[in-house]
Amino acid sequence: MCGIVGIFSHSPVNHDLYDALTILQHRGQDAAGIVTESDGKFFLRKNNGMVRDIFTLKHMTHLHGNCGIGHVRYPTAGGSCSAEAQPLYVNSPYGIVVAHNGNLTNQEELTSELFKSDLRHVNTNSDSEVLLNVIAHELQKLGKMNLTAEDMFTAMESLYKRCRGAYAVVGMLSGYGMFGFRDPNGIRPLIYGSRKNKDGTTDYMIASESVALDALGYKIERDIKAGEIVYIDQDGNFHSKVCNGARLAAPCIFEYVYFARPDSIIEGSLVYKTRVRMGKYLSQKIMRKFPDHDIDVVIPIPESSRPSAIELANSLGLKFREGFVKNRYIGRTFIMPGQAEREKSVKQKLNAIPLEFQDKNVLLVDDSIVRGTTSKKIVDMAREAGARKVYFASASPPVLYPNVYGIDMPVKSELVAHNRTEDEICQEIGADWIIYQDLEDLIKAATPSDECSTPRNFDCSVFNGEYVTGDIDDLYFKRLEEQRNDASKRERDGVYNGSQCVDLFSEG
């Protein structure tokens, strides 16, 4: 899961891109980068770390141009090597830079094709580099010096036939303009907006979440559709086309559960409202399953579970209290690379307020339970703070299957809910009882109010094992386990930390 942004403007974009990336920082904290273009030249700055630490005044003044793209990275199968930080660049044809959010499920096959048939070399383990080279090859096949919007659409039609999985992309072609597109299932989010200038010209912005557009004064136009490409040419003309093979949009439902900011709108649903409804439906299930509960207080596990916890408490007529204080200078533990880092950061990130736990039966509310180790530590903290009983509610269903579309949900063996009953999960995390959201209620919560009579199509694969791309089998899971288990990540990080990774662009 990453954050991407592209801006086509009639004035310098460096500061707007920086501001957009800080707004999207929650989507990735491993690395960040910006590329701008001026007079046919790209200006690049990228490195590992947070946005605020990567871009100094010196770097910002060297990012020239009125068009640019940016990226904040959260690694899945890849490591923490700064050479895999984005945007990525290839010089032929035209000069292309891209920023990618998602995961190609046929990366190995494409890498082989690129080498053997397309005569292109891939230098990293990043599927984003694979996707960039596919774009470059399909454009090169056209053999044209003067590229039109229709040429761009033709190249993308070919890309859609080759690339499987989840991908939302922004990019630039030197001397031609900016583009953005989503995979045929629309799994990863992408939205665009416009801003009118006093001279009558129009600026365009493409981003992972609507909140970035809001903050920079852009009018939200709409979500980019599944299988759609938008292209803003060098003269500022806007073009779009939904390519052949596009399917019914199936956005990732976990965006609503955890990743997206609550003030974002995805496919017409306000994320905050979705999380409020999740709390409402969960409270109804508690009353069905535990009608004689003895809960004294409802406490959220900051931050994304708070709207659900507040609504749950109100619906049950219970006290809502902030029992944990969050250190806002620690990153999101879910997206930290490696279990040791996640476990270490829990205690650094959260501190209990004993007054809210002492001699009380406490219901802790979290957005989800993935590995279970974090939940166990939080339950332990609640007991140490004096709680008499600790109950645990998950605002989403049990996570039973790995995510293959760009979220680092681990292999099955590392998921606490896989092959365990709810009673066994409860025992594993040390709670007195546990309750999960029903999938049907989660889907209903994420569906816009005006469409609630017809359930919307979502990718819910982590909950039900139904992968919308239809190409996931046991062999894929075996390869995934080799790439994603924590032991493999430690080994890769050891290589990167051993200075065997060279980043040619980190100095901008």
Strand order of the largest sheet: 3-2-4-1-10-9-11
Please provide the count of β strands: 22
What do the pLDDT scores average to?
91
* Number of domain modules: 2
The helix content, as a percent range, equals: 25-40%
Tally of alpha and pi helices: 17
Biggest sheet overview: 7 strands, antiparallel
Radius of gyration, in Å, reads 23 Å
Ends: how far apart? Answer: 24 Å
Low-confidence stretches: 495-508
Tell me the overall shape.
Answer: globular
CATH architecture of the largest domain: 4-Layer Sandwich
Q: Can you tell me the CATH superfamily of the largest domain?
A: Aminohydrolase, N-terminal nucleophile (Ntn) domain
Structural class: alpha+beta
Q: Per DSSP, what share of the residues sits in E-state strands of 2 or more residues?
A: 15-25%
CATH class of the largest domain: Alpha Beta
CATH topology of the largest domain: Glutamine Phosphoribosylpyrophosphate, subunit 1, domain 1
Would you write up a description of this structure?
The protein has 508 residues and is of the alpha+beta class. It folds into 2 domains: 3-249, Aminohydrolase, N-terminal nucleophile (Ntn) domain (Glutamine Phosphoribosylpyrophosphate, subunit 1, domain 1); 270-456, Rossmann fold. Helices cover 33% and strands 23% of the residues. The strands form 5 sheets. A 7-stranded antiparallel beta sheet has the order 3-2-4-1-10-9-11. The longest helix has 19 residues, at 271-289. Mean pLDDT is 91; it is low at 495-508.
